[in-house]
Amino acid sequence: MLTYIDSHAHYDAEQFDPDRAELLEALHKGGVRNIVNIGCTLERSQFSIDLAEKFPFIYAAVGIHPEDAADTPSDYLEKIRKMAENEKVVAVGEIGLDYHFEGFDKELQMRFFEEQLDFAEEKNLPVVIHSRDATEDTMRILGKRGKINGVMHCFSGSAETAKQVLALGMNISFTGVLTFKNARKAVEALEVVPLDRLMLETDCPYMAPEPNRGKRCDSGMIVNVIEKIAELKGVTPELVAEKTMENTLKLFSRMK
Predict the structure, then answer these.
(1) Tell me, what's the pLDDT at 15?
(2) CB within 8 Å of 166: residues ≥ 6 apart
(3) What is the pLDDT of residues 77-109, one digit of tens each?
């Protein structure tokens, strides 16, 4: 049985309301060593902490997603600061930029991004970066800071962007998108990411890999992604699981 870590999940999502506790226990028994539940709002960040305190194998990240910046109170950093004191909080995230939907406030998103990057650096916590349709601004903001202790989650950029992310010292994680038939761009990006900088995630309940595409995703489905990476890299699934687990534990150093 493969043992692995899901570095980015959203078990606070309503899709898990009917069976959350039972599912999480079953996943842990089935090979999921750890799960990092990711905050997007103040409320969901707190939910992540509550979940982590209930389940020893779950950890939390706290932060404000760019799409949620407009609905966040001005004193949010003080609330995040208090949350980050909890020993089960392993990262600040997910933070970043998202220009996908119309009506976004670019200046507000960039301010929140910068403020949370500053906070993470101050607290010596890694960051979980979200970037969608905003590569140029994301890389400009990160690039001016030099080395970044963090991971670019749900990577959807080009191989060239992947090289830039790696040059900043960051890890890169992929979702079930890698298994999709039209995933040429993701596959090309994976080719330039060495095993010692690679992480795994589901972004569940979204991004379910083949053959479960379109269904509710959960951490158990990472096995499909591991097998795909092993095929593309020409290594064993066991090696992919082992190396990505090492990378995740190294980045999220509070994780036990």
Answers:
(1) 98
(2) 172, 192, 193, 194, 197
(3) 999 999 999 999 999 999 999 999 988 999 999
Pairing of strands 89-98, 127-132: parallel
SS3 at position 5: strand
Query: CATH number of the domain at 4-251, please?
Result: 3.20.20.140
Q: What is the Cα 143 distance to its own chain's centre?
A: 20
Does residue 207 come out as left (phi exceeding 0), alpha (psi in the -120 to 50 range) or beta? left
Tokens representing 54 are 């209930």
Q: For residue 165, give Cα distances in angstroms to 7, 109, 168, 236.
A: 18, 20, 5, 26
Summarize pLDDT for 236-255 with one digit per residue, the tens. Answer: 999 999 999 999 999 999 99
Please provide residue 201's backbone torsions phi and psi, each rounded to the nearest 5 degrees.
-155, 160
